[in-house]
Amino acid sequence: MSNEGEGRVRVELLGPLQVTVDGRLVAAGGPKLRAIAAVLGLAGGRVVSVDELLAAVWGEDLPATARNTLQYHVGVLRKTLAAQGAAGCLTTRDPGYSLSADTDVAEFKAHIAAGSRGAALGDHTTAAEQYAAALSLWRGNALADLWQFPFAEGRAVALESCRLTCAEAWSDAELALGRSEDLIAPLQDLIAENPTRERLWEQLMVALYRTGRQDAALSSYRTARKVLDDELGVQPSARLNRIHEAVLRQESWLWPERAEPTGGGAGHTVVPTRLATSEPQDAPPTLVAHGGQRIVLAGSPVVLGRQADCDLVLQDDQASRRHAQVEPGPHGFVLVDLGSTNGTLLNGQPIAGPASLKPGDRILVGDTVVRFIGAG
């Protein structure tokens, strides 16, 4: 969208704000200047009025100096872009300002549209590639460093909701291609962060069943039913119940109509997806099970297992009664296996002794994924 002969400006909003010119990162200044750049970028080139900018950044209770401060920040942004050869990209046009720039939000939506076209035509390979490309643009929560401004929360939640819908569509495409094994871990991560999202449970149950893990698929249904009751006071939908019955009866329709030949195209890695409001950036060290259970860690060990007196009780037949525990270590928290029958895996690798945990780590206890989030 940049003007001809000008440097190409790009505003990235799917994570902390970044502004680049011809691929070079530009110093975006303090919080208010960054917020102004974000509002202009989200506008997609249209003119944003001065009143709209004031409401977006300062809210209803405007200080007497707000208009002058806005004018000052716009001037600083214009000089910053001019120093990078993009002077004409930020223009003053009645009744406000316009920024000519590419955005990752527009690219995200274009990939989703292309994926949807592919899915509608039965081209699941294109659909999976386009949805994966959309998801790969995310660098964290949308507008992650701007939530204190009035405009940010609503826009961020809407973008995060689109992100989750995109992840579900990507999973549908991968399942249609018969690629189930590599899909299980991303789905478990998504469910840990969005435990009442029934579509994710449906996809996980199908993926588990197709990889020969009928018991795990049935266990996932039991967990989903409990979560929906505990969190929302509702029973599973007819669709989720239908998949449960199909797994019990081993019905043939659970398998894809056509599966991609072995070795024909690898699955895609998805950045774990969450709604913007689900996990504060300053979250304390926490264990999150894929049923939505959360345990905030402090000074005492936390035991994971099937037994009712465990701190994190897992409805998983493959978990031992007292399977593993997370306890304080010399530099944060460590994971310890408690002599379980099936062992404990950390990021896909079995642990033999105390293993240090860092944010984002995945603990596999039986068929249940528990994530470690927050400060390491």
General description of the model:
The chain has 376 residues and is of the alpha+beta class. The chain has 3 domains: 1-177, Arc Repressor Mutant, subunit A (Orthogonal Bundle); 178-256, Alpha Horseshoe (Serine Threonine Protein Phosphatase 5, Tetratricopeptide repeat); 286-373, Tumour Suppressor Smad4 (Sandwich), CATH 2.60.200. It is 39% helix and 17% strand. It contains 10 helices and 18 strands. The protein has helices at 31-42, 50-58, 66-83, 104-120, 124-136, 152-176, 184-193, 198-210, 214-232, 238-249; strands at residues 9-12, 18-21, 24-26, 48-49, 90-93, 96-99, 102-103, 286-289, 294-296, 302-305, 312-313, 324-329, 332-337, 344-346, 349-350, 355-356, 362-365, 368-373. The strands form 4 sheets. Strands 9-8-18-17-14-15 form a 6-stranded antiparallel beta sheet, with helices on one face. The protein has a 5-stranded mixed beta sheet with strand order 11-10-12-13-16, with no helix packed on it. Strand 8 (286-289) and strand 9 (294-296) form a beta hairpin. Helix 8 packs parallel to helix 10. It is globular. Residues 259-269 and 271-278 have low confidence and may be disordered.
Describe the secondary-structure layout.
Blueprint: E1 9-12, E2 18-21, E3 24-26, H1 31-42, E4 48-49, H2 50-58, H3 66-83, E5 90-93, E6 96-99, E7 102-103, H4 104-120, H5 124-136, H6 152-176, H7 184-193, H8 198-210, H9 214-232, H10 238-249, E8 286-289, E9 294-296, E10 302-305, E11 312-313, E12 324-329, E13 332-337, E14 344-346, E15 349-350, E16 355-356, E17 362-365, E18 368-373
Parallel strand pairs: 1-7, 10-11
Antiparallel strand pairs: 1-2, 2-3, 4-6, 5-6, 8-9, 8-18, 10-12, 12-13, 13-16, 14-15, 14-17, 17-18
Organism: Nocardioides ganghwensis
Keywords: DNA-binding, Phosphoprotein, Transcription, Transcription regulation
Domain OmpR/PhoB-type: 1-101
